[in-house]
Design goal:
binds zinc ion, 334 residues, Ubiquitin-like (UB roll), four-stranded antiparallel sheet, alpha+beta, 3 domains, 14 helices, 8 strands, single chain
Length: 334
């Protein structure tokens, strides 16, 4: 990204750095790791609306984490699982017309409202709520909602599964996930991209390709692609809880691992099972994935592993530690 620097008086190369900033949220000071754009030559801070907004959102999310409040997207998910519009959901809860809309767009919710939403997340509780309260929805809407509740109750297995997944993957952006909540759909698209392009892709190599893609995308855009965290393991950076994700991808028929035996060794090959869904990867993301693919296409698993051992972030961390995205600044592809 090139930008105008007033200090230098001309257009300059820029880079992204992180620093601590304190914001006041609902009267409480909240410290966040803020990304700022600086002039690569003189170090002067340059204005970047996107980063400013993201920092503010991070501060709000940190406040939510502290007070155990649902995230805006979680509120949206609760509403959507019942197939309700923002307006009918507000009506059902006896809240103001715009209340749900404001919460989904990032306003901090009232504590009592938060408790009610958490309670209603369980379909069993929604059923009780519908029986115990004077509901202002019209009869047709109410019947439709009861149908949905019944379907969700039968779907318990699915719900337990997705709740379980949420436990392991933070939806809150921070420096460890490249300021992006974990995005399963995006990751599936990345895995499909590499496994379809490569004639034979092994799991160990895939993990490095994902790491480089996330790091380079972060270096250039100040945000990661998948929201994965990467841990320092003896054979290079590895996505946190990766086997669990692969298990889910296999269950969802997106891709699976096939174990092959060759010369007494086990090989774990990634087999794609579907096409990349349209509209998931942006042009800028595909561009990064292509560059990573080209750079490493002739590297074997061992070579790319060795290569990744020389990165600053890997050398600066110990086994088991998460490698911060701030080290992405030191990665050079060529
Ligand atoms: Zn400058």
């Amino acid at each position: 990204m090139r930008n105008y620097c007033e200090e230098c008086g001309r257009e300059v190369e820029t880079k992204v750095v992180t620093k601590k900033e304190i914001f006041e949220v609902c009267g409480e000071p909240v410290e966040v790791d803020a990304r700022v754009l600086v002039c690569a030559e003189c170090g002067e801070e340059l204005y970047c609306e996107e980063f400013d907004n993201a920092t503010l959102i991070d501060a709000y999310n940190e406040y939510r984490r502290r007070h155990k409040l649902l995230l805006p997207e979680e509120i949206k998910k609760i509403r959507e699982q019942y197939g309700l519009s923002q307006r009918s959901f507000a009506k059902l809860l006896n809240w103001g017309d715009k209340t749900i809309c404001r919460y989904e767009n990032g306003s901090i919710q009232d504590k009592a409202h938060n408790s009610l939403l958490l309670f209603l997340r369980e379909p069993e509780n929604m059923r009780a709520y519908l029986t115990d309260n004077e509901i202002v929805l019209d009869e047709r809407q109410k019947l439709k909602l009861l149908d949905t509740v019944e379907r969700l109750e039968k779907d318990t297995e699915f719900r337990v599964g997705s709740r379980f997944f949420d436990l392991f993957f933070s939806r809150i952006p921070c420096e460890e996930n490249g300021f992006k909540g974990f995005d399963y759909e995006k990751l599936c698209a990345m895995v499909l991209f590499f496994s379809q392009k490569s004639p034979e892709l092994l799991k160990t190599k895939l993990m490095k390709l994902l790491n480089y893609s996330d790091m380079i995308y972060y270096k250039e855009n100040g945000i990661s692609m998948s929201g994965l965290k990467y841990a320092h393991l003896p054979y290079g950076p590895v996505p946190d809880n990766f086997d669990m994700i692969l298990g889910k991808m296999a269950a969802d028929h997106i891709a699976h691992i096939e174990v092959l035996y060759e010369g007494g060794y086990e090989k774990h090959q990634v087999i794609p099972e579907c096409d990349i869904p349209e509209g998931i990867l942006s042009g800028a993301e595909i561009d990064v994935l292509n560059r990573i693919y080209e750079k490493f296409k002739n590297f074997g698993s061992v070579e790319i592993s060795d290569y990744s051992h020389n990165e600053t972030g890997y050398k600066a961390t110990k086994t088991g530690e998460i490698i911060s995205y701030s080290y992405a600044m030191d990665i050079e592809l060529n």
